[in-house]
Design a protein that fits this description.
- The protein is α/β, with parallel strands linked by helices.
- The protein has one domain: 3-Layer(aba) Sandwich (Rossmann fold).
- It is about 40% helix and about 15% strand.
- The protein contains four helices and four strands; from the N terminus they run βαβαβαβα.
- It has a four-stranded parallel sheet, sandwiched between helices.
- The structure holds FE2/S2 (inorganic) cluster (FES).
- FE2/S2 (inorganic) cluster (FES) binds next to helix 3.
């Protein structure tokens, strides 16, 4: 692996929880990787498999979706639908030769700044371990 490899990570974050947690992590001055590109969405239920595939196609080394805690989705079941869709997206990634570990879903409440920082670190570490996405090679 090249010494210059800095993983590109895309994080789709629900406006009501994970995005607020990301803001909080910043306000708390928590230390987390700066290579995360956050995309705010109204609800993770809005994330389509195509959004995930597009992120990888555009050069992401890892992608994660962060939504409300179970039972807390403002649109009732959006986060449950997102979890199912991510499982399906992982299958598709496997079929096209991309490690499914490059995709993850996290439940992160609005007050959980440290959990957001932890998820960012976890996905960065994972992307470092896996190396650049096969689509980038
Ligand atoms: Fe946050 Fe649905 S409103 S996951």
């Amino acid at each position: 692996m090249s010494d210059e490899y800095t993983p590109k990570i895309v994080a789709f974050c629900c406006k009501y929880c994970a995005y607020t947690a990301a803001d909080l992590a910043g306000s708390m001055r928590l230390d987390y990787p700066t290579n995360i590109k956050i995309v705010q969405v109204l609800c993770t239920g809005r994330i389509d498999v195509l959004h995930i595939l597009k992120a990888f196609e555009k050069g992401a080394d890892a992608v994660y979706v962060a939504g409300c805690e179970p039972g807390d989705c403002h649109f009732l079941e959006g986060n449950y639908r997102a979890v199912k869709r991510m499982a399906y997206a992982k299958e598709l990634l496997k079929e096209v030769g991309i490690e499914p570990e490059r995709l993850e879903f996290f439940h992160i409440g609005a007050s959980e700044g440290p959990a957001f920082a932890e998820a960012a670190k976890k996905m960065t570490d994972r992307a470092l371990e896996l190396g650049p996405s096969p689509l980038r090679k």
